[in-house]
Design brief:
The complex is a heterodimer of chains A (191) and B (531). With 191 residues, chain A is an all-alpha fold. Helix content of chain A is 48%, strand content 0%. In chain A, helix 1 packs across helix 7, helix 3 packs across helix 4 and helix 3 packs across helix 7. Chain A is globular. Chain A starts with 22 loop residues before the first helix and ends in a 39-residue tail after the last helix. Chain B is α/β, with parallel strands linked by helices. Chain B is 24% helix and 20% strand. Chain B is built from 12 helices and 19 strands. In chain B, the strands form 4 sheets. In chain B, strands 1, 2, 7, 8, 9, 10 and 19 form a 7-stranded mixed beta sheet that branches. In chain B, strands 5, 11, 12, 13, 14, 17 and 18 form a 7-stranded antiparallel beta sheet that branches. Chain B is globular. Chain B starts with 5 loop residues before the first strand and ends in a 5-residue tail after the last helix. The chains are: A mainly alpha (191), B alpha/beta (531). At the A-B interface, helix 1, helix 2 and helix 7 of A face helix 2, helix 9 and helix 10 of B.
Chain lengths: 191, 531
């Protein structure tokens, strides 16, 4: 029997047909965002705040709401992706160490395109690329969560903290009349 | 049969000029009977889903309205870029514009007198100056009064600016610094881009679809007018392309015929005054297709066959360079340029060449973090890409001069919005090409002064983003299609208020000037006096 994640499906967005995203599915999907922050290390943290991306969650929930309450709804893609992740974590747990299964799975999902797209990995045409539920999960869910994470604040945490950016396309930097400038400003002769 | 409800004004088009005129007319008389007919659909502004799709899929909700190749074609020797130059929707092209709001210079009103080419406006900068002030207030333009081109006087002895900018300018970004310093070494005065900010900007870097409604859009004006309970006789109908202006006789229009693209039905409405505010493409097409039953053999206002001719565009020049490091980790933070200069946009240059308006490409330097993450790049790989090099680009709009042979014509068939298909025949003169190359040489020196290695330079094909001239103003009907008050020559109640009436295109964006003209026409129609 074909695994759920390997099931062949058409490339287009899965029809949601009034479906909702359940809390259990949201919990699984939130793990993707947390893992993005962990794998790329681009999330706010300090001595007192772990790298749990908690500061992004309310924005993320608003994003999910926008993607599921308006047409075309992503609810079916989110449900499918949650099940794909659940199934793969269980499979990785059987094959390796259940303690590290989740970590290893996301390592594959984020950095091993052959694992996701198999023999279609070099194909540019989405029609040919998105043939399985796993491919759908990567393209419609994980990739969009990556873009969300970057604009929600992840862009700030690459490179040297001394040169940290203040704004990015999609980030809400705030009013330019705030005391702290919303972008990095030019200062003549500044070094 | 024509509908029995008469309108004092039928406004064709719901972009900045149509919305501004409606606002002025209703300010003078809240009960004024006004109908706006918009060919395109309503695309919701400030929609969070649209905004998120813009961010994660780079898809904008109005892209589908852009011209398709089968609807609008370029047929001249120089390819003319049409796709993406306008939005056919409620609110017009302000739905997608960047908000750059610059005044034309005084010499832009006397191009033909100064150079022998192009056209002259039948009004002067001084005639329009009070309305520029009104338009800047209306659009909430943020600008810098201290720049040299904002000071001084016109040849009539009036101040270039009789009022300051309503809001202070957006300051330069850190990434602008090296170009600012290069400008100064080349005697180019660095300036701050005047930007229309209708409401409080929250720095989302997504001006092309602002989730807060901060960038001015005619949609907001129309919403406010429609929801004002005092405006009992004001109506906007979308999906309603006007197919012809209806005439009683050669001089007097009595209304318009439009198509409802939802039902496929044709309707006629009565109007005492017809205000054609449908942009530089649609205005000439509508007039060309109207009036033939009433002695306008070549279309309304076209006995001298000037309609659709003198197409003026802006050509974009660009020089891009790369620096072998990006230690400062610069990337794009605003979605509009903050650095610009009008040092090469002067009368002296106009007389010798084509003027240019310089600005730094807002999108560079930049890095697409998420694209690399999607492709599976590690943090280390991304940080190397972030810091190993950066690009910068100096861009310019180059002024062009209207030529009678550059024209827009109706093509058979109608597009998805019920508007006539069209073809644009444009040829760029050889001297313009040479002037453009000379400017590119000078721009390249700026990039090299910054320490960048030049990677490429481009003199882009002309495009329709800022097209003007197709229904131009003139002192008489042998010079233009409309008079100085935008009344179509030979008619008594048809006015045109769009970029089409500009005899010249200047080197800067036309929207502020169009807004000023709309206010001026509104004052004219209501008898209000400018301050």
């Amino acid at each position: 029997m074909t695994c759920f994640y390997a099931e062949n499906i058409p490339s287009g967005l899965l029809p949601a047909e009034g479906r909702m995203v359940y809390q259990k599915e949201l919990n699984l999907l939130w793990k993707i965002v947390v893992q993005i922050g962990l794998k790329w290390g681009n999330v706010y943290h300090n001595r007192d705040s772990p790298m749990d991306s908690a500061n992004l969650k309310s924005s993320w929930l608003e994003f999910i709401s926008a993607k599921t309450n308006y047409d075309p709804s992503y609810a079916a893609e989110y449900s499918s992706a949650a099940k794909v992740i659940e199934e793969l974590v269980a499979e990785f747990g059987r094959e390796t160490d259940p303690e590290t299964a989740e970590d290893e799975l996301f390592e594959k999902l984020f950095f091993d395109r052959e694992f996701v797209y198999e023999e279609n990995v070099g194909v540019a045409d989405a029609e040919l690329l998105l043939t399985t539920r796993l491919a759908h999960a990567k393209y419609y869910v994980i990739d969009e969560f990556i873009r969300f994470q970057i604009v929600a604040g992840g862009f700030k945490y690459f490179g040297n903290p001394q040169y940290r950016g203040r704004n990015y396309k999609g980030y809400i930097g705030g009013s330019r009349y705030n005391r702290r400038p919303s972008v990095r400003s030019y200062e003549k002769n500044a070094e | 049969m024509i509908s029995t409800k008469p309108y004092k004004y039928v406004i064709i088009g719901s972009g900045i000029s149509g919305a501004t005129l409606a606002k002025e007319l209703l300010a003078a008389n809240r009960n004024e009977e006004i109908l706006i007919l918009e060919a395109g659909p309503i695309i919701e502004a400030e929609n969070r889903r649209y905004w998120w799709d813009f961010i994660v899929q780079d898809r904008r909700p109005y892209d589908f309205t852009y011209d398709r190749p089968d609807e609008s074609v370029s047929v001249g020797k120089t390819p003319f870029l049409i796709k993406g130059s306008r939005v056919t929707a409620y609110g017009g092209s302000t739905v997608h514009w960047g908000g750059w709001s610059l005044r034309f210079n005084p010499e832009d009103f006397y191009l033909k007198s100064n150079t022998g080419d192009g056209g002259d406006w039948p009004i002067s900068y001084d005639d329009l100056e009070p309305f520029y002030c009104t338009a800047e207030q209306y659009l909430s333009v943020c600008g810098d009064d201290t720049e040299s081109w904002n000071r001084g006087s016109t040849c009539e002895g009036n101040p270039i600016r009789s009022k300051p900018f309503p809001l202070p300018p957006f300051e330069w970004t850190a990434a602008d610094g090296e170009m600012i310093e290069a400008f100064e070494k080349h005697g180019i005065e660095p300036g701050k881009m005047p930007i229309a900010r209708y409401r409080k900007c929250m720095t989302t870097g997504t001006c092309k679809y602002c989730p807060f409604g901060s960038r001015f859009s005619a949609q907001y004006v129309l919403h406010d007018l429609q929801t004002d309970s005092r405006h009992n006789n004001f109506e906007v109908r979308s999906n309603s392309p006007v197919v012809q202006v209806l005439m009683k006789n050669k001089r007097k229009a009595i209304g318009v015929e439009y198509l409802c693209t939802i039902t496929g039905d044709h309707h006629k409405v009565h109007g005492d005054n017809i205000l054609v505010c449908s942009g530089a493409y649609e205005t000439p097409k509508l007039l060309l297709n109207s009036g033939r039953q009433h002695s306008w053999e070549n279309g309304i206002g076209n006995d001298e066959e000037l309609l659709g001719k003198f197409v003026v565009s802006h050509s974009i020049l660009s020089v891009r360079g790369r620096l072998s490091h990006n230690i400062e980790q610069w990337f794009q933070e605003y979605d509009f340029p903050t650095l610009m200069s009008r040092s090469w946009d002067t009368e002296a240059i106009q007389k010798k060449s084509n003027k240019v308006f310089l600005f730094k490409n807002r999108k560079l330097p930049n890095i697409d973090f998420s694209k690399m993450m999607v492709m599976g790049k590690t943090r280390r790989e991304i940080e190397v890409a972030l810091t190993e090099s950066r690009q910068s680009e100096l861009q310019a709009f180059m002024e062009e001069k209207g030529r009678v042979e550059n024209r827009l014509q109706v093509k058979s068939g109608r597009n998805r919005f019920g508007l006539p298909n069209m073809k644009v025949n444009f040829t760029r003169p050889e001297q313009t090409r040479k002037n453009g190359e000379a400017w590119l040489d000078r721009m390249q020196k700026v990039i090299e002064t910054m320490g960048y290695k030049v990677e490429g330079r481009k003199f882009q094909d002309p495009g329709g983003h800022h097209m003007t001239g197709t229904c131009r103003m003139g002192r008489s009907d042998t010079e233009g299609v409309t008079d100085k008050n935008l009344l179509v020559f030979g008619t008594e109640n048809i006015y045109v208020c769009s970029n089409a009436v500009f005899p010249t295109g200047s080197a800067v964006n036309p929207t502020l000037t169009l807004a000023a003209l709309a206010f001026r026409l509104g004052y004219h129609l209501t008898g209000k006096k400018a301050q």
